[in-house]
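Tutorial handout. Part one gives the primary structure; part two gives the three-dimensional structure as tokens.
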Amino acid sequence: MNTPHPPLLTRRSSGVLLHITSLPGPHGSGDLGACARHFVDWLAAAGQTLWQILPHTPAGPGNSPYQSVSAFAGNPLMVDLDDLVQRGWLPWMPRQGFDHHHCDFERVTPYRMQALREAWRGFQEKAQEGDWQAFHAFCDTHRHWLHDHAVFMVLDQRLGGPWTTWPQPFAQRDPDALAAVQQESADELGFWRFVQWCFWMQWQALRVYGRQQGVHLVGDAPIFVSHHSADVWARPQEFLLDGHGQPTEVAGVPPDYFSATGQRWGNPLYNWSAMAHNRYQWWTDRMAHLFKLVDVVRLDHFRGFESYWAIPASEPTAVAGRWQPGPGKAFFDTLRDRLGELPIIAEDLGIITPQVTALREACGFPGMRILHFAFGGGPDNPYLPHNHVPDTIAYTGTHDNDTTRGWWQHARPSERTSVHAYLGPLVDAEPHWSLMRAASSSVARTAVFPFQDVLGLDATHRMNTPGVAEGCWEWRFDWQQVGHLPAERLRDMTQAHGRGPHT
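Part two.
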């Protein structure tokens, strides 16, 4: 599936940001089934060539895809259950009456996981020889991460987390203890491998379908991983941990205009010197895996590769942190030597120094320009469309921003004055289309619009509010909200600005 793809970031193009779980569907959350293919059809009809998603990995605390138990595994909630019914591994699923506009994770997760367990039993009873061969081939090919992931999930289900509280033989990966797990829990290990195989098959089918329609996938790679993850548990020497497996320092960002205490994310920091010693093997494996799933990767918190904010793990806030040097260009040079060209978007938001910009430019990665940040600081604001450069991805907002309608409703008077002066008074009627048009008409080679903005939805449809622990990541839409007009308007605008599909 790693077939050549066109140079997506070197030509004028346009796309939409929508996470898989936000899709419609009968089983409580969006998945990789018919509704995903229908969305591809909609994107193609709207003249879009890019579909940007959030991380494909299992959601963690607060349902965040940025705090996952694995940097490699696919989210089980994205597995299309109807496909498993059609294969004969799962009985027909009666509709449960889930909310069409909201993903109730507390209800949806156990429902879907139970269905996947039934499908595993059905697979063992009814699978053809070719299915077993494909399953075993997948397990062999992906063993470098899949084995640890399956064992971690078995222990997580059995013992609970965090992994540092597990009995010492399991926490410290005693070979005899792990061998006993493989012996005693062979069926459960098979289940977790089966879930990942199903995800992989369905994802690859969707990717092929998208390419047939001229739609390419943009993925997302969080820079850091969760402490309670198979990655940290299996490779503790590559993270800054003490003798008990606890982080000595954690990730975050310093105090700024938005927060007097900064942000303490809590992720363990990488032991970059240890990673460099083996030529960044974990990162190489991770990125190679991602490029088999998507055509472009948005690399989260790019500035952390130049320097990162290290917070003593004992500190409750980010105030006492300090800047530490990241791996820099040598890291990306190694990845490029081992993987070839890197179709990466650098998320260069936040505190961006000249050194960060120099690293991004030296690597040849386009940065991001968010129009919600444009209307303050005068005409030199780099987010204003007239200051964009071709090597840029222009967004109205991201998953962390309010919708454009919500942003406009809550804009400060001075901000509104600047927007009126720049975009004209018509912004009052359709702020979302005004900002989308401004992004699309800029010289930035790529423009991406959150689907909520395409539909003109207000703040109640926001995907995530940073720092808020509950109620995020749950938004879904249904096709009754869409109609034919948004696709037509988006297609016409895309074509007018030279961003239509390329032959």
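Part three, for discussion. The radius of gyration is 23 Å. Confidence is low (pLDDT under 50) at residues 1-6.
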